[in-house]
């Protein structure tokens, strides 16, 4: 079974984060919701508190197939301040393991120098922070081991792309049909 972790900081975008959790779990992917705060409950940008599965210090990174960063403000900036998480993101990228980010969060990949020569998309206004990327305005992009999405309205596309990469197109299409997306 494939396994991913999605990281939650105060001020995350609820729909971006929880759509990934929901659709990936429907596809049979094990998803750990991980708090990077000092609390097991993390509150999103719109005041919705969610109880996480784990704390950051309890994550076994070697067992994971993908790391996912949701967007939102100030959630994206709060994630970027977690040095141990940023080290793991860089290590995953260097190893060719999957990393994914949506909305403002692809800017984190740009700041870390991970987008050089890659196609990437982000929330409007963050394009200049995608250092080295070939910026697109598609709903989501997958370039080798990096998946990016534009924002909340693209959360289903982003989630289905994660499923496609970790499982296959048939599983992704099946989930899309089950939720009446297409």
Strand content: 15-25%
**Largest sheet, strands/sense/barrel:** 7 strands, mixed
Structure annotation, total helices: 6
CATH fold descriptor = Rossmann fold
Average pLDDT: 98
Uncertain stretches? none
* Helix-strand string: EHEEEEEHHEHEEEEHH
Total number of beta strands: 11
CATH class: Alpha Beta
Structural class: alpha/beta
Q: In order across it, which strands form the biggest sheet?
A: 5-2-1-6-7-11-10
CATH superfamily: Class I glutamine amidotransferase (GATase) domain
Distance between the termini: 26 Å
In CATH, the architecture is 3-Layer(aba) Sandwich
Compute the number of structural domains.
Answer: 1
Q: Kindly provide the radius of gyration, computed on alpha-carbon positions and rounded to a whole number of angstroms.
A: 15 Å
> Residue share in helices?
25-40%
Shape: globular
Descriptive notes:
The chain is 32% helix and 23% strand. It is α/β, with parallel strands linked by helices and 182 residues long. The protein has a 7-stranded mixed sheet with strand order 5-2-1-6-7-11-10. A two-stranded antiparallel sheet has the order 3-4. The longest helix has 13 residues, at 14-26. The radius of gyration is 15 Å and the shape is globular.
């Amino acid at each position: 079974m494939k396994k991913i972790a999605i990281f939650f900081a105060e001020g995350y975008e609820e729909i971006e984060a929880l759509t990934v959790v929901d659709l990936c779990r429907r596809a049979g992917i094990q998803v750990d919701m991980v708090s990077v705060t000092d609390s097991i409950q993390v509150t999103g940008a719109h005041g919705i508190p969610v109880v996480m599965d784990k704390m950051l210090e309890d994550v076994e990174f070697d067992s994971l197939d993908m790391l996912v960063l949701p967007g939102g403000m100030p959630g994206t900036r709060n994630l970027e301040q977690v040095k141990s998480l940023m080290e793991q993101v860089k290590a995953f990228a260097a190893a060719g393991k999957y990393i994914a980010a949506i909305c403002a969060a692809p800017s984190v990949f740009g700041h870390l120098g991970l987008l050089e020569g890659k196609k990437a998309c982000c929330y409007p206004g963050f394009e200049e922070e995608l250092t080295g990327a070939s910026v697109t305005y598609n709903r989501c992009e997958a370039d080798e081991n990096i998946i990016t999405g534009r924002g909340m309205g693209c959360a289903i596309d982003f989630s289905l792309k994660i499923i496609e990469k970790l499982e296959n197109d048939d599983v992704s299409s099946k989930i899309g049909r089950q939720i009446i997306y297409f």
